[in-house]
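Holo model, S-adenosyl-L-homocysteine. Inputs:
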Amino acid sequence: MQKPDLRGIGMTSQRARDRLVEQLREMGIRSEIVLELIRGTPRHLFVDEALASRAYDNTALPIGHNQTISQPYIVARMTEALIETGIPGTVLEIGTGCGYQTAVLARLGIKVYTIERIEALIQRARERFRLLQLDNIVSRHGDGSLGWADQAPFDGILATAAPVGVPGMLRSQLGIGGRLILPVGRSGEQALLRIMRTPDGYEQQQLDWVSFVPMLEGTS
Ligand code: SAH
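Output:
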């Protein structure tokens, strides 16, 4: 396999990445760790070559199968919410998609368990993880709304597809002190939530309004 072009050329260059990071800063992303992760993760390798020139625009882009790679601002916002009190040891991600958010988490040294319901997408994401030598990612083709019971509890859980309500299985697979970051609601009215597990139960807070693809049941 060809060596990946990690630095990029033209519109995928360092300048384009610096501009994106400045935009995220202006939009309120404060964590320097997160900003450096966005600067250093080659997003152009997670989209089709035809879209590579737009890889450092702050927008969602199509990745096939009716799915999208999340907007960089949203990836930054969710990552910031996940790590604000420390970097978790283990994280479960629901909705691997192209694997960009997964790669961002893995580059923090987190052991990431990721589940995707569309087989073709997880196959391609795995190739990217190999190419980038991200060997702290374990991936599975399956329905992530059920979580990953064998590997629970997790220090963090992050969903990049929106269920209509919070799946109880996901909440229950959080360890004490763990946090679940997920969008919830129907298309057009989704809230980004942070749910923390305490010794007594759960604490929930809304962080933002967002727009994600729906979390669907079953696999394809
Ligand atoms: N994390 C990606 C975003 C992918 S879009 C990024 O970095 O940009 C959301 C993904 O969630 C889609 O690929 C979709 O197929 C997947 N998905 C939806 N419902 C799911 C479910 N129940 N289990 C696992 N994956 C699911």
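The first strand starts at residue 61 and ends at 64. Residues 66-210 form a domain with the Rossmann fold fold (CATH 3.40.50.150).
Archived with the compound record.
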